[in-house]
């Protein structure tokens, strides 16, 4: 809470001789005074958790407080343990910022008290308006610096990192981890402006759960980016899952997406190297796009050989000589490709392949001979096995199998 908003709350509490609280429009607590007089379960829970419980939110929404033009008297509710209270809209220049709350157990609030409370609500609105303007200017400046941090030019990256540190926008020059969340559209669909707003809302909601100055955010045309110090990522290991879940919830259930995926890059040594982790997070999403086993959260650390292949230019991968051999495996019997990949994944252990495919070992050997005939690769030769194995992984990465 800001010092100015706290001053407004404390001044009104002292004048009225009762406790005062201010929430935002989502009924999350922004400021509160020392407790004077009666307090109910709702007020106690809000102070402890900083937000109203679900049953309290449902009760509050019945009163359509967002449409109120002045003080609204809310009755008690014995079932929810609520005392009578008054809600006063907090606005400035027509913008709604939240509500000022007073508990009024015995109906003793006089007209003069409500006038003073309304004046205080107006003051609170002016404070919150100024803070929003400052925040928007700050976010715009930080956004420019984060875009430069992720630029392809090393000198621009270093200048952006210095600007973020010197401007007090980032708390650490040390290693960072980049997290990217992106919806994967079905054919013929794309991420539109409404989707970007939903992704931005999810990104801001997760940022608000993290320590201030310990994360950087950026909204891009098709995805959102969260950059955290390595130490913060270790303290909040589920943040990539939480951001993906929040994005999926904001985007809503839709047949426009094949999936909503989170990619996590590797730790860098310095803030100025964030572009490297960002690129790895994007690569992890590209792999998860064609290899669903890596969804919903794909960490570059866990990609194995796919991590190396995803860093190569696509035109070079398409030009590999081994790809026709992979194509030859698919045409007569798709089971041959499955058998070949499993055999190579399991380091040539035919017994294990037979168990996993529920086949007799003789059938596996028969398939392996057929694979050799179709591809021209000798599976008893370690180097040829390696080339074929890489070829299958490349074909998967390119969406050819």
Automatic annotation (TrEMBL):
InterPro entries linked to this entry: CdaR-like_regulators (IPR051448), CdaR_GGDEF (IPR041522), PucR_C-HTH_dom (IPR025736), PucR_C-HTH_sf (IPR042070)
PucR C-terminal helix-turn-helix domain segment(s): 336-393
Residues covered by the CdaR GGDEF-like domain: 174-287
Domain of life from the UniProt record: Bacteria
Pfam families according to UniProt: GGDEF_2 (PF17853), HTH_30 (PF13556)
Family (UniProt): Belongs to the CdaR family.
Record's protein name: Helix-turn-helix domain-containing protein
């Amino acid at each position: 809470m800001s010092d100015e908003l706290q001053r407004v709350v404390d001044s009104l509490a002292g004048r009225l001789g009762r406790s005062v609280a201010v929430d935002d429009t989502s009924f999350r607590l922004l400021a509160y005074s020392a407790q004077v007089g009666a307090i109910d379960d709702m007020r106690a829970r809000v102070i402890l958790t900083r937000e109203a419980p679900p049953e309290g939110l449902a009760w509050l929404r019945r009163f359509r407080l967002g449409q109120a033009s002045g003080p609204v008297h809310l009755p008690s509710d014995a079932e929810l343990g609520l005392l009578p209270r008054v809600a006063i809209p907090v606005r400035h220049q027509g913008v709604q910022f939240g509500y000022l709350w007073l508990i009024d157990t015995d109906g003793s609030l006089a007209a003069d008290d409500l006038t003073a409370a309304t004046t205080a609500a107006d003051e609170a609105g002016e404070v919150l308006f100024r803070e929003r303007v400052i925040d928007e200017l700050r976010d715009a400046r930080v956004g420019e610096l984060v875009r430069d941090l992720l630029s392809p030019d090393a000198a621009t990256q270093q200048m952006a990192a210095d600007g973020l540190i010197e401007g007090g926008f980032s708390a650490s020059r040390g290693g960072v981890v980049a997290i990217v969340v992106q919806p994967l559209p079905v054919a013929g669909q794309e991420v539109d402006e409404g989707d970007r707003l939903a992704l931005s809302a999810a990104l801001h909601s997760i940022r608000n759960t993290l320590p201030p100055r310990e994360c950087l955010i950026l909204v891009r045309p098709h995805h959102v980016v969260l950059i955290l110090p390595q130490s913060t990522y270790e303290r909040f290991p589920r943040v990539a899952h939480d951001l993906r879940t929040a994005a999926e919830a904001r985007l809503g259930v839709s047949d426009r997406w094949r999936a909503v995926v989170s990619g996590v890059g590797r730790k860098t040594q310095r803030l100025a190297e964030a572009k490297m982790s960002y690129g790895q997070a994007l690569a992890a999403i590209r792999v998860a796009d064609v290899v669903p086993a890596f969804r919903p959260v794909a960490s570059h650390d866990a990609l194995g050989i796919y991590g190396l292949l995803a860093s190569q230019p696509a035109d070079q991968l398409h030009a590999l000589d081994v790809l026709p051999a992979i194509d030859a495996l698919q045409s007569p019997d798709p089971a041959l490709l499955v058998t070949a990949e499993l055999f190579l994944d399991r380091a040539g252990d035919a017994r294990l392949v037979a168990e996993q495919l529920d086949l007799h070992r003789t059938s596996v050997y028969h398939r392996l001979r057929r694979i050799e005939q179709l591809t021209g690769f000798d599976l008893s030769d370690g180097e040829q096995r390696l080339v074929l194995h890489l070829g299958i992984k490349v074909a998967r990465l390119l969406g050819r199998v």
